Request: fold
Amino acid sequence: MTIIRLTDDDRKIQQEAISELREYYGSVALKKGSTPTFEVLTYGCQLNEADSEKLSGMLLSMGLVPKPENGPAADVVVLNTCSVRENAEDRLFGNLGPYKSAKQTNRDMMIVICGCMMKVAENVDRIRRSYPYVDLVFDPQQLYNFPVLLRDAIRKDKQLINIGSVDYIAEDDFYDIDRKRRFRALVPIMYGCNNFCTYCIVPYARGRERSRKFDSIIDELRTIADMGIKEVMLLGQNVNSYGKGNEDGKTFADVFEAACSIEGLNRVRFMSSHPKDLSKRVIDIMRDCPKAEKHLHLAMQSGSDRLLMKMNRPYTIKEFYDIADYFREQVPESSLTTDIIVGFPGETEEDFQDTLRAVEYLKFDSAFTFQYSKRPGTPAASYEDQIPQDVVTERFGRLLEIQNGLAYRSNQSKVGHSYEILIEGQSRQQPGIFTGRTMSNHLVNFTIPEDICSQNTGDDFEGRLAMVRIDSARPYSVDGAFERFTDV
Ligand code: SAM
Ligand code: SF4
Ligand code: F3S
Reply:
């Protein structure tokens, strides 16, 4: 697989396509009597969310505006897909139908599908065969090429499918990023994954590991701080592999430490790291830097050494305990969260008991628990010892019950204390209830007194820091009351 770092010349080509599309959508606006609209629908993880912010940014540069909430179907609809589990794929095909009739009433409408699912040949074939009204299909590696591909698809007026075999590295200045949140900026620092866990589609979908330039990341973080965004999330499938292949010798710990020293930023998070190569230095930075968030997400996947080996996760559960113990010793008042898969091929009741034992020992503050999903093309999909669904469902229920109890206990330990919260926004269902997170990533729902609220719109609080006293706990969050803003 070839890896190519994009240059200013590549950027120029995209800018030319954006200018042409601006002109084209200007003429569409005259015909329609209103500005053309776009909608980007995102499935999957934060890396996809980050890609969607880039897609939105490009569409804004082309002169389109976001589709109003209850308005008619957008003129450009982009579905940014995820392939990690079968249900994510089903959701895409389930959601495509209505666009067919929308397209019949709006001949200029463009339906675009991109993201990880498009790296799976069966999905692309299915679109080719059964969804002729989809105009453009491309894979995640060609995100940078979206303007050229959209222009070509419009010119061609027939389905355009462009799946490449090159892994590109684009720095942030390649894009006009439409950052969706005022409280947190997503910053991919590397792309792809080389780990090839035997159940996982991501290395096939996202290509080989490749890292952005250190200086470019730091420039992006400074720009984010200047925008007044208080939190950054450094993203990669395995951030601890950052820097391999770059010449400057910088590691993830260097990026993390440098991020924590940027003036204007208050919180630095990262997602995800792999237990096999999380360095103690990263944990020490979490201990020593006030801006480093006190939250470690470390996917365990299973508590059975036998299954970990079969999953191609090269660590033992004892090694996992050692990292977790070191983290909790060094970074008190923190949270440790994880991912666990239930029903991996060959999982015996004994293996599952190992997982339950590990969960009880480690007392994760929260966990994403998944039922194993067979991903065509991955090694595990061809294992013969697949676990019957009823067994998976039963085990999953047992795990969830234990983990929910532990998460509730973690939340209960917060009651009676006050914490600084970064406010994420107001609940849509319950206006007047705000949500935010502690430094340890605990989710907090809280009220703000009437007199403060009446002088502001709810949106004014997004991205602000406040002390909140925690009054009660729920399984997935805590409830509290506002004390004072801390960022004035
Ligand atoms: N790179 C991250 C890591 O290793 O920590 C994980 C990223 S992956 C998108 C998120 C989680 O999805 C994984 O940790 C795993 O638990 C889950 N996952 C991946 N493939 C899966 C599959 N085939 N079935 C069920 N869960 C899966
Ligand atoms: Fe998938 Fe494993 Fe890579 Fe994570 S480290 S993205 S689970 S292959
Ligand atoms: Fe899904 Fe791709 Fe992320 S498969 S979880 S969107 S890397």
